[in-house]
Design brief:
This protein has 358 residues and is mainly α. The chain is built from 12 helices and 2 strands. It is a multi-pass membrane protein.
Length: 358
Amino acid sequence: MSRWTLYVPVLALLTLILTFGRDLPPPAVAVASLLLAGAVLAAVHHAEVVAHRVGEPYGSLILAVAVTIIEVALIVTLMVSGGEKAQSLARDTVFAAVMITCNGILGLSLLVGALRRRIAVFNPEGTGAAFATVTAIATLSLVLPAFTTSRPGPQFTPAQLGFAAVVSLGLYLLFVAVQTRRHRDYFLPITTAGEVIDSEEHVDPPSSRTALQSLGLLLVALVAVVGLAKGVSPAIESGVAAAGLPQSVVGVVIALLVLLPETIAAVRAAARDRMQTSLNLALGSAMASIGLTIPAIATAMIWLDGPLLLGLGGTETVLLALTVGVGTLTVVPGRANILQGGLHLSLLAVFLFLAASP
């Protein structure tokens, strides 16, 4: 294990403790940002160690759930301190997470995989089931609130929010049961000939002690990531305001920061010809972002004041529909080339451009 991956998470956590709750001057923001980046890279390393020990699909599931828990904590923390301007923060962050995972991580993984093997091959049963679940939860949580009539504005009533939270969590848990138990083989990497790869080749798994050490350091790194991200968030919000950008850009920046570990891990997996692992990370992250975030936010609304704006606007709904259509055509064949990767990355570029210039 590289020595820097041992020290950086601890150093980042110590910096978080020393700076927690304080207004940071520019030099401190710069140091926190560097340690934030280091903690992200360390988190990716330790997640890969744990994943190698427990095998797929458990490894990608551990990282997706861990990062989503951090995302939820960050959103709730910023909602508590953000006042009226944070009423749409959960929607903006979750939608950004869906677009980044389903277009950015998925597209980049397909592009890397196709450049390596000319054709990126994956299991259409597992990938299709994951994408269908993401589509259902995203529509329920982000589209329907704009069309319900019990309460004005793009929001659910408390009963509707509770129902959506239960259904989202239930679908996520059902998917996890299918992924890890009943149809685990659907989510294992396969070769271009269609053969299932149930273990890493030529590499012995780490010992239990090393895996437990990496698990602990992964949690430390992720806590440091969310804490330092919160510490630099005032600088992010000030920068967004100074640039004249919409408030929703803050949610995009949060999602980009939180999903960086999974992005790096997915691209590394694609470079090792483990396309299914990459897609497990991409779609699993999207599903966890909605299936866990919405129930957590719904619970937090018991104590938080003000409305929770969840419904997407017209532009965002069109982008989500386009992502679903293109994504369906991508995953159904079980094979993709650089065109599909380029299509998804183009959709991400459109989302980012329209987020900054609506």
